[in-house]
Amino acid sequence: MTTAEIPGGMRLKDLAGWNQIPADWERFLRASPEGCFYVEERGQVVGTATTIIYGGRVAWIGMVLVDPDHRGRGIGTGLLEKAIEHLDAGKVPTIKLDATPQGRPIYEKLGFVPEYEIERWVLHRPPAAQVELKPSPLPDIDRIVELDLEVFGADRGDLLHSLHLDAPDFTLAVDLQGEIVGYALGRGGSRADHLGPWMAWDEPTAWELLDEFLQRSARDTVFVDCLKDNAVAQALLRSRNFQVSRPLTRMYRGSNSHPGRPELLCAIMGPEFG
Asked: What is the pLDDT of residues 6-41, one digit of tens each?
């Protein structure tokens, strides 16, 4: 896949009702120019799959999309197999993805097993006026990247820097006596602003980050992909009138020797990125 196929990928994304924008496809292609794939029929993109390798430890498969009129013909499975073949050739020990209930049986047949459960939470609210931010130093993104390596389990610094560059107002950190005890990033999508990753050591930190993000976002819709086992984060979302939209399952293939610390995560970056 190249930048020439981004409009075709956007068409499939729109048919699926997903939230990505062209900048997200560009992130995939910058991170993995040889690892993003598509199927074309009669000059039209009818299927896609993307991969990203994080620090040689963990690879990610995302954006597995098939035109509804072309489903049931093995296009999605073929793209998955191509993505896995590409990652196996790079000797990446662990491949991960986030599966819908419909996709999970397919991934299980390809050797993926569950790691933990995720839920997409959605907030619908009246449009807010854009907040005039008080002048203050931006959080140190390099320190966030360092902590994210521990929490996620692999280095995705390039991706975090990209999110920070595109939406610096959504980059948040809570510093306690010189130590970062929580951080969050976000991005704007075609349908909503998306909060994630969102990490906190304790409930007050999680609360502070969530409320600050909601204040900075002027969109009437906000998405958060929250870990189902994180009761604190779920209670916070519920208190802010978020509602559960759909379930996802984090799955992996391989050793999973670098699982990170998911118990510290309130929300993932998103099912397309991990």
From this structure: 999 999 999 999 999 999 999 999 999 999 999 999
Q: How many CB atoms lie within 10 A of CB 227?
A: 21
Whether 115 is covered by a domain: the verdict is no
pTM (predicted TM-score): 0.94
With 0-12 / 13-18 / 19 or more C-beta atoms within 10 angstroms meaning exposed / middle / buried, residue 158 is middle
Q: What is the CATH number of the domain that holds 234?
A: 3.40.630.90
Domain range for residue 62? 3-92
Residues 6+ apart with CB under 8 A from 101: 247, 249
Q: What is the CA radius of gyration of the chain?
A: 18
Q: Is there a contact between 145 and 112 (Cβ–Cβ < 8 Å)?
A: no
Transcribe 81-117 into DSSP letters: HHHHHHHHHTT-SEEEEEE-TTTHHHHHHTT-EEEEE
